[in-house]
Structures are given as C-alpha cells and as structure tokens.
Design goal:
The protein is of the alpha+beta class and 552 residues long. The protein contains 25 helices and ten strands.
Length: 552
Amino acid sequence: MIYVAAAIVILTLVAMASGKVPPVLALAAAISVAAILGIAEPSQLFAGLSNGGVITVAAMLVIAKGVIHTGVVTRVAWRLLSSVTTASQTLGRLILPVGAASAMMNTTPIVAMLIPAVKELQQTRGIPARQVLLPIAHVTTLAGSTTLVGTSSNLLIAGIASGSGVEVGMFSFAIIALPVAIVGWAWLLFASPRAFKASDDAEEKEMTWRVEIPVSAKANGVGRRAGDLGVATTQEFRLLGIRREMAMLEPEEPIAAGDTMVFQATEKGVTALWGSPRFGLAEQRLYAASVAPGEPGTINDLESHGKVDVVAAQTEDQLHEARVNAGDTIYLTSDNPKSMYEHSDIGLWQDAAGKAPQVGRTYIALSILAGVIVAATFGLAAVEIAALTGAVLMVVTGVLSPRAAARALDWNVLFILAGSVGLGAIVVESGIADKISDAITAISAGSLIAVVITLAVSTALLTNITTNAAAASILTPVGLTLALDLGANPVMILALIGTCISFTFINPFSHQSNLMVMQPGRYSMKSFVKFGIPLVAVSLVSVIAVSYAVLM
C-alpha cells in the first residue's frame, strides 16, 4: 500500500506543479482516492477542517483585514516614503516596518497596500517600481517565517505537530528564521538595484488603461465634438468611442449629457480626463485603489459588492467585463467615502488628488492584534482561540462589518490548507514519512550537517515546485520522524523546515505575493529565476549554518 500512497502523493504534487489543475481539486482527488483505498481513516484525512492551524489562518485573515481597514499601514507607508529619492532608500525605509508587520499578520494584504504607493513613487520621483516591488514581496515572506502567525505554512506545521504532541510557540521559529531573514534582507538591499534596470520610459507611457468617463449635465462639452474640445487624441489618451444607452457611437459624434466616453489612456491620462471640465466631474472624488486579496472576479462583481463605480482599469477588454486580481490598481468613484471603508474587495485606497483619508478605530484594531499576540505568546489561550476571539472582536467593536469580515476569508487558501493536512495524513499513515526519514538518515550516515543540508535543500526545492502548504504537509511528518531518530529538538527541525518553506523566490506561482507584483513590476518568469536563484542560495547557506549551530 505504501507504493500506492507514494503514487498518489507524487501525482498530486505533479498536478499542482503543472498549474493545469487547481490545487484544491488535486488535493480533493488525493484524499478521495486515499479514503476509498483505506490508506488512512476519514477522520484523519479530513482533520484539516478542524485543524487548529487552519482555524488560526482563517481568524488571522479577518484580523489582518481589520488592521488594513483602518488605513494605518497606508499612513505609515506614506510617512516613510515622503522623502525617498532612490530605490535603495525606498527599500531601506520599508524593510524593518514591513518586516515587523509581516511577522504579525498575513503578508498578502501588506503587499497589496504597497503596490500603489510604489507605483506613485515611480510616477512622481522616477523611482523604478521593478527595483522595489519584488524585493519587498520577498521581504514579507522572509519575515513571515519568523513567527507562528506570520505565514499560513507555519500555522499548518504547528497544527500537524500538535497532533504528534509537539507544541510550537509564537516565536519558536525565530531563533533560526530571524537571522536568515536579516541575511536575506541585506542581500536584497545589495542586489535589487543592480538586478533590475529601470523600466523603459516608452513602456511606462503605453496606453494600457481602459477608461470610461460619464458625461455630467454640468459638462461644458455637451453638444460639441471631442476633437474640437481637445479630448479626442493626445499623448496621454485616445478616444475609442462614445457609448449612448446601448449603442457605441463614433468618436466624431457630438457629446450629450449621460454619454459615456470610452478611452484608452496612460495612468496619467486617467486623472487628466477625470479632472477635465469638458465632462463636468471635477467636483466628484476619484479614488485610486488596490484590489484586496481574495478570489479574482470581474469589475462587475466588484461593483456589486459595494456602492462604487469603477472608471478605469488596466485591460484590453470591455471595462466591466475585465477580470481583476489581488494587487491590481483600479480607479473608481463613490458618492460616499464610507463605501470605500466598508468595501471588502478594496485594500489600500487614496484620493487621486491626495493621500488616503484616515479611518477611526485604528487603536482598537491594533489593540486587538496586540492582544492576540500577547495571549498566544504567554500561553494565556491557545493560538486558535486567541485568534478567533480577536476576529470576533473586530466585528463586535465595529472595525469591520459582518459582511466585510466574512469576505475577508479566502476560501481557496483555507481549503488548500485543509486538504494539505489530509495529504500529510497519507504520508504518515502509509509509512512514507518513515521511509523518507530512513533514507535521509542513511544518506547522511548519521552526520547532523548532512541531515540539515538534505532537509534544507529538499524543502526549498519542494516549496518552489508546488505550494508552501504542500511542502509543509509532507515535510512536517518527515521532520518529526527525523528528530526522533536523531534525538534532536523537534521544534528546531520544524523551524528549519518552516524557514526554508519561505524561500519561494524562483517560481512566481509558488506564493501569492509573487503573483501580485508580477504585472505592476513588469517581471517575467526569467526575472524571477535570475533574481531568485542567488537569493535562495544565500538563504540556504545562512539557514544551514544557523540550524547546525542551534542543533549542535
């Protein structure tokens, strides 16, 4: 049966690595087949649905949404970046605060918050976004590995380990992960400006934005042609047509109140069009916003979730049929700024003519987050209970509406984590974990440094081929068995695995933060490989050295 189980695990990993099969479907198929064949008990295969780590991840998603919702991350970011003039300065200002924030909550909303801020630096100060975005994404993943709640994979490791009687504390992994993160950050500061050339100016001026501008009754262009008004074709925008009711008219038609002017524009052109008196919209507020992490959908979906109207997005499709993903920047308007605060699909947002409005309840949200960290750190409550209580308090205190809290849950991520626990059960119950542990012990000939090197390299490879959740579910049982065989501290072995799982630097599909910065930073697959391999190498050398010193 062990060979059948091994085939199931290998096929699942191949399916996930191919990108052609959704990870949730691959994991569900593996669990179903394993249950039918009796490889493990259903209660073990479906234990992920009640796993403490998965529950904590869900609660921390709500808590992170509440903190982000207050605008505190935005305000701190603007203050930090107020006087920077180079990419190196930008990274230097962001590393410590972003690292600290990423250690305390989910990293993806933090990256989503920073994308528009970094893009604005490119527009206003000429600081290339591509020299900042990918390094910052890597900063967050390195920082997340230092604490229990900083990354979902650490929580998953802790949840699996708890079932074997091994308890992981809030900062148990920091003794290995923090020195490794510091080395990685230093490398990023050194290498990033040299690795990425500034984007070509012509490329930045491409008209990649689809813009739909409604014509107000106050517009002074009513009754006149766009060409006569100077709003047909410029270096910043090009009029594609005029939509009147259900019909699309030629650009030469006279403008009427209630028309929608459809443009292709640069980002600078978006704000120029909105502020033009030709359309009578200057008194209405235009907001730049980033799409919050979650399931991708269309702009129509986004508008249906709150009282906002999207007027511009980077797409070649019809605006309202265009799909948006976490971290994408859009321009929208709303009659009531409160709608922006309450919208579950909007992360960072700011007035297009100024900085992000401040939001109340900042201290409440930060106090709740601090309370969760303190309670979990000092054992006042189990981490899942502390996190769940914090999530409930975010709603009870009014930081989040019940609807916003519910929509903060990323069900795709949660089901992948739950399914990964089931995959781990297959590895344990079939005896695969014991076989892998025996093989590593045999190859290393009892040498601790050889075990550390083998485990570190294997983890880094697996996390870049599949997902960090899959790597955690497979290697945690192996690590526990190895610790028992070697007489080593199991928590430190798990810290080694958890730290290496954060080395998702080569494959853009191995971590959501990578995907979020790929388009805004104009990175290619080659960019990730070229920049990621040296960072993985540096990180592996440091984690091997630190882990060996700790385990000696």
